[in-house]
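Hi everyone,

Forwarding the result from last night's run.
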Amino acid sequence: MPNPLILETERLHIRPVELADAAFILELMNMPKWIQNIGDRNVHSIEDAQNYMKEKMFPQYERLGYGNFTVIRKSDQAKIGTCGLYDREGLDGIDIGFAFLPDYEKQGYAFESSKCIFDAAIHQLGIKKIQGITIRENIASQKLLIKLGLKEEGVVNLPNDDVELLLYTFKVTSPL
């Protein structure tokens, strides 16, 4: 893997997901909100979580040097959520996404980690177009994408998925 991007904010460590995160990923991917807003990924055991990471997360890290990040609260080292940059088929930009355990919602962690990753994407990785997708019912994600500076562009359907998603986009228009 290329040098991994490791970030931090005042309250958070943000590092690439690793196999040791399997139990956390299992818990996160089976939350009702995850299944409702992102979809059931059929990850129902530690082994499923490890396989999902090996098959879906790690290849993008190998190829691009970024992907899914585990967000860890500095004060107690709790794994509280994920945030990442995803090269998704069907989008012409890099998708920024996030998910947090219910106990850590509404405390600013999603914006704090997403903003850090967003800034790194532009300034460290040179990404020129960041997109965000969400189901129409996920108002919290829509608000966070707008707060990051993305603008609603319309709707999109990803390949092999019949769910219509709202599409938000941020384009770097001048040298930063």
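DSSP finds five helices and eight strands in the chain.

Cheers,
N.
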